[in-house]
Structures are given as C-alpha cells and as structure tokens.
User: What shape does this take?
Amino acid sequence: MIVGAGFAGFQAARTLSRLTRRRADITLLNPTDYFLYLPLLPQVAAGVLEPRRVTVSLTGALRHVRLVLGEADGIDLARRTVNHTGPEGDRGELSYDRLVLAVGSVNKLLPVPGVAEHAHGFRGLPEALYLRDHVTRQIELAAAAEDAEVCRARCTFVVAGAGYTGVEVAAHGELFTRSLVRHRPLPDGVRPRWVLLDIAPRVLPELDRRLSDTADRVLRRRGVDVRTGTSVKEATRDGVRLDDGESVPTRTLVWCVGVRPDPLVAGIGKPLERGRLLVDPFLNVPGHPEVFACGDAAAVPDLAKPGQYTAMTAQHAWRQGKAAGHNVAASLGLGKRRSYRHHDLGFTVDLGGASGAANPLGIPLSGPLAGAVTRGYHLAAMPGNRVRVAADWLLDAVLPRQGVQLGLVRSWSVPLDTASPELARVPGAPERPAEEQPKRRERPEE
Assistant: This one.
C-alpha cells in the first residue's frame, strides 16, 4: 500500500512495480488520478502550459499498480489498515502487508490576521488555474476602472515568500501581465506591479548565493519590487499591511511562504521532527519494519550532514521514493535494502522567457543558457508529456498568449487552510480539515 502519488509516492510505486514484476499486489491511494509535476505549475498559472501538460495519468504510467481514488484519513498500525474517504464521500478501509507513506505537504499558514481569508496558496492545480483566471480578471477590471487608485490596486500583485515557488510565480506572473496589457491598455499610464516579499535577507535563501543574485537581478530588471527583510503584518480585502507600517493596496496575495507536512502523519502517534515522521536511514518507521515513509512528510537523516535531516524538496522526494521502492522489495526477499544518501547535482530556477538561473554540477549559469538547461532538466525529469510540453513552449515563443478567464475554479473552492490543495472544494463534499489552522470565513466573491 502506497499512500500519496506525489514525487515520492509515484517513484516508489514505479520502482516497486518494476522490481516485483507482478509478484506483489501494489495499491496506490491518491485523491487524484494523476501525478502532478509541481515545478512547472507557475507556467500553468502564467498561461505558458495547458493544465494537462503537467499531469501524468497514474493508470497509464503505472500499468501494474491498482489505483484507489480517495484521501487517507486514518492509519491503524496495529491492525495494518488505512481508512480513506472517496471522491463522492464514501468511506473505506484497505489492509496492507507493507505501507509506504508519501503524503507530501500542504500550505504553511502563519498566524497573520486576514491571511486565511484573503490569500491563496500555490500547491495544487486548482490553485494555479484560479490564479490565472484571477490575474486576468484583475487586468480586465482595471482596464475598465474609472478610478485611478482602484486601477492601480487591481494591477498590484503581492507574492509572500521569495523561495523557489515565490520567485518563479513572480517571474512568470510579471511576464504574463505584461502580455495582457498589450491588448488591454490601462488608463493614465498605469502598469502592472509585482511585489515579492520575504523576511529573509535575500531571495532564494535556501539556494546558492549566486543563484540568488541572478534571480534578484532578473526580477529587478523587469520591474518586480523585491522587498527582503519584510513580511505581511495583516491582509485585508483591499490590500496588505507590511511589518514596516506600509500599506499596499491590492486585490491579490499569493501565499508562498513554505509548506508543512501533511497533518495525517501527526495522527499516527509516532515521534515527529517539526511535523515530519521520524524514520531511519532505510526510511523505516522505528518499531515498524513494515512501514516506510518518504518525501516531505518524512524526516530522513541526511547522511552527508550528520545530525541534520534532508530538506523538503522534489529532488529528495523523487530519490527517496526510489529508495523506498527498493527497500520494500528487499523486505519481500527481492534484493538488498539500501540507506538513503543523496549527492547534490545542483538546482535550476525558471525565470520565464529565456531567462533562468542554474548551477548544474556546481557550475553557475545565468541567462538563456541557464534557461535552456532548466527546461532541458524538466523535460528529462518528467515521467510523461514531454512532447506536449515542448510543443507548448514552442507555441508560446511564437504566438501571443490567450488572455481569457474560464471561471472553472472559484475563490471559495481553493481556500488556503486546507489539507487537500490538490482538490478544489465543491459544495456539500466532505473535506479532511487542516489541523491547528484557523477557520476560513466564506465570502460571496467572484
């Protein structure tokens, strides 16, 4: 039984299926029928890629794995069962001989007044689709506004969090709004404004300084207002107030301050490390040799840095999933188990257009070369849809983007305080609550 089909869960299922060769019954429990390639989500929000390009069919890619649609909402280690709720509210129970927990992470919600009500996260496809519609709508409303202040507020977009996701959202978002105003002239010379905030002293604080400097330089050159050492003090319907006392009128606050482990693991009753389930170097939960955990929900010892745990990144999740698949197979008598050890091969950051920042094998790159390396890396890493993604990139390079809003995802259906960012909320449907988060007040907007 594998719970979750993100980077870790998908790779664990694929590796285990290949090693067992139909000698084991493999069940994958996941809320959606697709694997989402998260690093390209900013390009969906910016209209570069169509939504299905960043999704890979689980049944198509994992031919010998049984897919059960549903969300795990309880795990009984003593009985070796997983309770789940299906997409139509039906409840079920699945038993297992081996369990791989790869439930990933959800939006981190800080106790900032108004954020739960007025901000939106960026962890799932529904949130990206909502953001694309919302940004398009704000530009359209601004173009028709008679009040100059209202126009400027609608054309101001604030991104909180200058990590990997926040930087790419701001970079692609700025190019997207620039393309929108070419066909929708704004009054009084108003231009779209993007504000990127982070309490850290620099953008991309978790990455190499040279990558950070490159990203900062590209963003500022495009006109993005980068504010380091700054955070959101309060969010309202009409703007955000910063901790330095300044108020920024806006209708858009994108919350990219980070993630936290899925709250499911907290209910297992096993030791945690900052919300992540503690495991040994073989990805086993201590005291339960039949239970493995990997990805963002697992605190995996970093053997290259004694005393530390691996970071919550897609690179680690992908490789931990592969290691978990090998170790589950080894527990069934197929091969030898292996400890998880990762060698950093570098990072890539897509800054939109032909720009990028990358350090493959420690070699710092910037400009078009970094952009080409970044896109080449994504094509190589994606488990499917490579031709379709490349075709969309080619079309985006030669054709104008389609600035239309489809209205498929509403504001209230993608709340920030949810444990299921991969699913859009629908009226009357049950939802697994995000623990220890404030309740969101529904508002009849959009």
Summary: The radius of gyration is 22 Å. The CA atoms of residues 411 and 445 lie 7 Å apart. Residues 435-446 have pLDDT under 50 and may be disordered.
